[in-house]
C-alpha cells in the first residue's frame, strides 16, 4: 500500500494525467466486432504538474457493452 501512495506522489511531481468518469449512456449503433450495444462514456481528464492543474479536457469514449472493445474517443474543443 505504501508503494502505491509513493507512486501517486511521484506522478504528481512529474506531471500525471488523472481521469474520472462523469457519466455514461447508451449510444446509437452497434459494435462492428460482435454486434453488441454501444455505450458512450463522458470522461474528464486533468493534467497536473506539481499538484497544480495545468489543463482540463473533456472527452467522450465509445465502447461495446458486450465485448468491451474501445471503438473511438472524441475530444471536445476548448472555448
From TrEMBL:
Under what name is this protein listed?
Uncharacterized protein
User: What is the organism field in this record?
Assistant: Oryza punctata (Red rice)
Amino acid at each position: 500500500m505504501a508503494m502505491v501512495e509513493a507512486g501517486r506522489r511521484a506522478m504528481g511531481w512529474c506531471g500525471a494525467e488523472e481521469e474520472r468518469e462523469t457519466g455514461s449512456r447508451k449510444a446509437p449503433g452497434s459494435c462492428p466486432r460482435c454486434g453488441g450495444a454501444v455505450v458512450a462514456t463522458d470522461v474528464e481528464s486533468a493534467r497536473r504538474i506539481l499538484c497544480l492543474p495545468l489543463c482540463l479536457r473533456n472527452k467522450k469514449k465509445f465502447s461495446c457493452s458486450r465485448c468491451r472493445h474501445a471503438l473511438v474517443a472524441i475530444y471536445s474543443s476548448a472555448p
